[in-house]
Amino acid sequence: MHSNLFRGTLVCSLLVILLLAAGCTQPSGPTQIPVTPSVAPSLTAEPFPQGSSKEAMVAFVKEASAYAKANGREKALAEFSDPKGSFFRGDLYIYAYDYSGLTIAHPVNPEKIGVNRLEERDADGKLFIRELMDASTDGTGFVEYTYINPTQNNRVEKKLGYVEQVDEDWWLGSGIYYRPVDQSVPDPDATPDE
Asked: Using CA atoms in the order 136, 140, 144, 150, what is the torsion angle rounded to 10 degrees?
């Protein structure tokens, strides 16, 4: 029994080390110095490129959750709400809600902070905040919805959200947009009409 416990602890420790090490492989570039947090964000070297990947989004949310747990709710929410903070990178940013549906951090829409959005519907009629919150009660989860893209002139686009529960009182998340297909790019296998 002790052997299995030791082995399980060892495997979990290795997974944590691998997850932390993944943030250390970013290309070098301009660095951002965090505002003396006791646990600094690990991916501050360079913003994610436009059109971030699902994997980058998940790592970003996990980093934010670890930051919140290490630094406390108040400090984390201030950092998450700061559009110039370390949790706003490229087209990724962290939003946070409590379990009543109240927005408690949002760097893109600060006017939503203090607003209960639990019954808010997306362009397709989906109660997307409720679905994101429900996904977080399982620990983590993904939800697809439509939302305005502030980096694309507020165009409504499909979005994939990933959320994680911080504790029994609140959760946080981020999202990536599905890019529209550019119809002007010719098919390389097509033969031109003549």
From this structure: 80
In the DSSP assignment, the letter for residue 36 is: S
pLDDT in tens, 46-69: 444 445 789 999 999 999 999 999
Burial class (CB in 10 A: 0-12, 13-18, 19+), 139: exposed
Task: Domain ranges for the chain, please list them.
Answer: 2-177
Q: Is 139 left (phi over 0), alpha (psi -120 to 50) or beta?
A: left
* Tens of pLDDT, residues 116-134: 999 999 999 999 999 999 9
Residue type present at position 156:
V
Rounded CA gap, 17 and 7, in Å?
A: 15
Q: Determine contact, residues 113/105, Cβ cutoff 8 Å.
A: yes
- Report, at the CATH architecture level, how domain 2-177 is classified: 2-Layer Sandwich (3.30)
